[in-house]
Design goal:
Length: 263
């Protein structure tokens, strides 16, 4: 791929590639990058369209807000043009509703693939679905004006776009419950202190900080980063002894690879 080759640009999502770094940009700042089923399908397509040489994916939003969450048009009787309204979906068969939500979730799942490291560069509002999209990434760099909030419960709903698992892992059950149940804002200082954010920077330095982190992630050999990511992500569900075994197996694979030994 040539520098900044545009791979996809549709439905409020643009994917560009610069060698080993891909950038996914939410491109509807007039609506604070509000999300819709069409945008989710475009995000899923972006993940599938990544060239094999990409190692780092940066997710960003144009304008003053990363993403203000779900477009409220989803809750109107007419919904979005060409889409079933959420109200109509709720009246349909339960299995169909489950399948539809599962399809929407695909936009949020590919960011943690072992072959890439994903970075969310978050400024301004990251509300509801916007918060969950930031949580979908491996790492988060945030601007000093960031405002995270999980507002689904205030609408009588629950967070269902894969955000609950990383939120509990990052901030703990009690704080995650409090944040979700109250819908309160989490600002930059708390985000950094609790581990939700890896780094806080002034808003005008956000893109540069993401580029710097992407460059640092590319410094190590790809296979070592892939193995390390798999090792760390699996540690959540493994016991201590299981993790020791996993470490030995991963290191054995790396040593054999470095020695040029094939199975």
């Amino acid at each position: 791929m040539t520098s900044l080759d545009s791979v996809l640009d549709k439905d409020g999502v643009r994917l560009t590639v610069d060698d080993a770094v891909a950038t996914v940009t939410l491109t509807n700042p007039a609506k604070r990058n509000a999300q819709s089923p069409a945008l989710w399908r475009a995000l899923t397509e972006a993940g599938r369209a990544l060239p094999g040489n990409v190692r780092v994916v940066v997710l960003r939003g144009e304008g003053k807000s990363f993403s203000a969450g779900l477009d409220r048009q989803a809750f109107t009787p007419e919904g979005f043009d060409g889409e079933p309204s959420f109200l109509d979906m709720a009246r349909g068969p339960e299995a169909e509703l489950d399948a539809t939500i599962a399809e929407y979730q695909e936009a949020f799942t590919w960011w943690r693939r072992n072959d890439i490291v994903s970075i969310a560069a978050v400024q301004g509002h990251a509300i509801g679905a916007g918060f969950q999209l930031a949580l979908a990434c491996d790492l988060r760099i945030v601007a000093e004006d960031v405002q995270f909030a999980m507002r689904e419960t205030s609408l009588g709903l629950v967070p269902d776009l894969t955000g609950t698992h990383p939120l509990v892992n990052l901030m703990g059950y009690a704080r995650a419950l409090e944040i979700c149940a109250t819908g309160r804002f989490v600002h930059a200082e708390e985000a950094e202190r609790t581990g939700l954010a890896n780094l806080v920077v002034p808003a005008d330095e956000l893109d540069a900080a993401a580029r710097d982190l992407a460059g640092a992630l590319l410094a190590a050999p790809r296979d070592a980063v892939v193995e390390t990511k798999a090792l760390l992500s699996g540690a959540v569900s493994r016991g201590y002894e299981e993790q020791r075994v996993a470490e030995r197996a991963a290191q054995g694979r790396r040593l054999r690879d470095l020695a040029g030994i094939t199975d």
